[in-house]
Write a structure and sequence with these properties.
Helices cover 78% and strands 0% of the residues. It is mainly α. It is built from five helices and no strands. It has two domains: 19-104; 109-161. It is elongated and about 65 Å long. It has helices at 19-62, 70-78, 81-106, 110-133, 137-163. This is DUF2127 domain-containing protein. Pfam families: DUF2127 (PF09900). The chain crosses the membrane at residues 74-96, 108-124, 136-154.
Length: 166
């Protein structure tokens, strides 16, 4: 039993990850997001607009949603060829940005820390609003991970600014 003034031994082998290790962890996370975007683009391209429209209608019918309802009709109309091409282009650009950022973070480039920090911080107000409106474990995890990314990258940016001469 521990009395007042007693101390707890901390395992000396457990040390926080170095800043370089943290940057590489964020790099792997960003590359993973790029892979997911490429997989989504590939799946959407493979299915094509007609199959996606049929899929939306089948799912709506399966759950008893009216096929002429506002949301179902809007989604089915939105999945035309031109819209799908735009979505595919956005997914490919997003994936390219994630891979470029991951490459830069893996090599500890300052521009990558800035890019990632600003990009991740832009999502914070949206994520806080979503957590407020729809509390649950998923928005909590998303916000926590994004805060950790902003923390790691922001700290790297500050470290680099302090190291500048002048």
């Amino acid at each position: 039993m521990m009395g007042a003034g007693s101390s707890v031994d901390v395992d000396a082998g457990t040390t926080p990850a170095s800043p370089a290790t943290q940057l590489r962890a964020v790099a792997v996370f960003e590359a993973g997001k790029g892979v997911v975007a490429l997989l989504a683009a590939g799946a959407l391209g493979w299915f094509g607009a007609p199959r996606l429209q049929q899929g939306v209608e089948s799912v709506a019918a399966g759950i008893g949603a009216p096929l002429d309802g506002d949301r179902v009709a809007w989604l089915a109309r939105a999945l035309d060829g031109g819209t799908l091409d735009l979505v595919l282009a956005v997914l490919l650009v997003y994936a390219a940005l994630r891979f470029i950022e991951a490459w830069g973070l893996w090599r500890a480039r300052g521009w990558a820390s800035w890019l990632g920090c600003i990009g991740a911080a832009m999502y914070l107000p949206i994520e806080v609003r979503e957590l407020w409106r729809h509390p649950g474990w998923l928005p909590t995890i998303v916000l926590a991970v994004n805060l950790a990314v902003v923390w790691v990258l922001g700290r790297d940016c500050l470290r680099r600014m302090r190291a500048l001469p002048g």
